[in-house]
Specification:
By secondary structure, the protein is of the alpha/beta class. It has helices at residues 21-29, 66-78, 97-105, 119-126, 155-159, 174-183, 213-219, 239-244; strands spanning 6-10, 32-35, 51-54, 83-87, 111-114, 140-144, 164-168, 191-196, 204-209, 226-230. The structure holds S-adenosyl-L-homocysteine (SAH). S-adenosyl-L-homocysteine (SAH) binds next to α4 and β10.
Length: 250
């Protein structure tokens, strides 16, 4: 059977200029493009030749089952078509890229993953936050607040890691995140930046503290998609970041 390749392509956080050159090449080669909800449709300018299939599945909204997406990719690849699966940010950062690659490879399909800029990195940068600012943070930890089995994160380990925490899928769980980190020993006045629609023209930034973040998010009607940056670096900003900021009243 003539089988072509599947590219798992990171489309970045939203700003189409954050696409990699490799992503642009994959899009140009693709005959079929499967596109997730969080991908900015502007990137489709790079694949006018392709058939585009939306397969978004955001929590609580209309949903395309993962098994269906798997089968769709397999079917087109087995027809010998070049498939690009476009995912927001980086395909392998909370993007199921790993499991899709394994599933396809187990069926003999060649897969190539193309990195994208993950939302946490882009959001921090666009707010003037250096996630590992020298002398302030020794590292950065990317975590999701949403687990498949609803198990709890190891809050104490996170609170005491000395790293900047970047939390994905956290908007609906701000209270749990706060209580977990406070119980784990993180100071109540630890700075927090909540960044909605990172890198897009409608990006919004809410600066707060661990103890106030839930109330400040409510007061500013913070919505998904948003990332949280928790740690001393979240007090940093540059002139551009500060002027764009929606600062919560303190
Ligand atoms: N693979 C993606 C993450 C997918 S999980 C990446 O690497 O960025 C979906 C979560 O990512 C959202 O709930 C939100 O926390 C975050 N996210 C994705 N796009 C975002 C954006 N433009 N701004 C802020 N957060 C975003």
């Amino acid at each position: 059977m003539n089988s072509a390749k599947v590219w798992l392509v990171g489309a970045g956080p939203g700003d189409p200029e954050l696409l990699t050159l490799k992503a642009v090449r994959a899009l140009a080669e693709a005959q079929v493009v499967l596109i997730d909800d969080l991908v900015n449709p502007a990137v489709l300018a790079h694949c006018p030749q392709a058939r585009v299939i939306p397969v978004g599945k955001r929590g609580g909204c209309r949903s395309t089952p993962q098994a269906f997406i798997h089968r769709l990719m397999l079917r087109y690849a087995r027809q010998g078509r070049c498939v690009a699966r476009l995912k927001g940010g980086d395909p392998c950062i909370f993007g199921r890229g790993g499991e899709e690659a394994q599933w396809l490879e187990a069926r003999g399909i060649e897969v190539e993953v193309v990195n994208g800029i993950t939302a946490g990195l882009a959001g921090a940068t666009r707010c003037g936050i250096a996630l590992t600012h020298r002398g302030v943070a020794r590292g950065v930890t990317l975590v999701t607040a949403h687990t498949q089995d609803d198990s709890e994160l190891h809050w104490q380990a996170l609170a005491q890691s000395g790293t900047t925490l970047v939390v994905y899928m956290g908007v609906a769980r701000l209270q749990q995140i706060r209580s977990g980190l406070l119980a784990g020993g993180l100071a109540p006045d630890t700075p927090v930046a909540m960044i909605e629609n990172a890198s897009l023209p409608q990006q919004r930034e809410v600066r707060s503290t661990l103890v106030r973040m839930h109330e400040d998010a409510l007061a500013s009607s913070l919505k998904s998609p948003a990332v949280l940056v928790i740690g001393e670096v979240a007090a940093l900003s540059d002139a551009t970041g500060a002027s764009l900021a929606t600062r919560a009243a303190s």
